[in-house]
Design goal:
The chain contains one helix and 23 strands. The protein is mostly beta strands and 279 residues long. A hairpin with a 4-residue loop joins strand 5 and strand 6.
Length: 279
């Protein structure tokens, strides 16, 4: 019969106890998971209340952290999915009040304090200390284009000036055309690819605008901006020059429906009506 020394048994028991008392923190960045096992933080009975208010305006989410003493914190962002994280290092018990139910957030702990996670796409995040705590402003992304920014690098000539008449456009993919709020939705086969309607330069390509899935924006040499939205992927990158009829990506899918949302905009980002050229 094998006899295990008492000291070995004791070491194994202590090791298992330590592992079971550990918390797991998982951070996903750039599609990779990083798991860190650390002793879980728990606020003490004397923890000071930390009041956090969330408010969403048209293009921003405002986060106000109120306290009567200076706090140490770290602000950072993560991708896939997009979220803004605020780690606070001290003995606090965080209380969140939201004036907008659409703001998805959650409170947790990291090894040295409390963690507030706000699940939202973001264009820019900045913070500043105030007399009552910390203020964080999250600028939300938008399909709107900043005037003159989109095509500042494209040479313009008299022949490229936008006509005052309603433009006529050959669609990026063949299919059934349905009028949308600011353009057209083209229903098509789920295996189809969409193409550039004109020569131009890619000013946006990404999927941070969740309600639009993958979006490609191209500033065209004719002075217009084409927006291809609700795609399943994109084959082009920001800054890339594309040619007319070049494949840009694959159409998106929602349930049994596949297709692409297409919009035409002026140089300042305003959507305009257009006529569809026959195939």
């Amino acid at each position: 019969m094998l006899i295990i020394p008492f000291k070995v048994v004791l070491i194994v028991v202590v090791f298992i106890s330590l592992i079971s008392s550990c918390g797991v923190i998982e951070i996903r960045e750039r599609g990779k998971a990083i798991n860190e096992r650390s002793l879980a933080y728990t606020p003490s009975d004397s923890a000071q209340a930390l009041n956090v208010s969330l408010k969403k305006d048209e293009n921003t989410i405002n986060v106000n952290i109120e306290t009567d003493k200076a706090i140490n914190y770290k602000l950072f962002t993560l991708k896939n999915p997009d979220r803004v994280v605020i780690d606070i290092y001290d003995n606090f018990n965080i209380k969140v009040s939201s004036l907008d139910k659409d703001i998805r957030h959650r409170v947790g702990y990291h090894p040295w304090g409390v963690r507030l996670v706000i699940d939202t796409p973001y264009a820019k995040v900045y913070d500043q200390r105030t007399s009552f705590g910390v203020s964080v402003v999250i600028s939300l992304p938008s399909l709107e284009v900043v005037p003159n920014q989109a095509s500042s690098n494209l040479a313009q000539s008299e022949s490229n000036q936008v006509s005052s008449t309603i433009p006529r456009v050959k669609l990026p993919v063949k299919g059934k055309v349905e009028r949308a709020e600011r353009g057209v939705f083209i229903r098509t086969s789920c295996n189809e690819f969409f193409r550039a309607v004109e020569d131009g330069k890619v000013i946006y390509s990404g999927n941070s605008l969740r309600q639009y899935d993958w979006v490609v924006m191209i500033s065209q040499k004719d002075g217009f901006i084409s927006v291809y939205a609700k795609a399943s992927n994109s084959f082009v990158k920001k800054g890339e020059t594309v040619k007319k009829s070049q494949v840009l990506g694959k159409v998106g899918r929602s349930g049994d429906t596949c297709g692409i949302l297409y919009e035409l905009r002026t140089e300042d980002g305003s959507p305009i009506r257009f006529e569809v050229l026959p195939d």
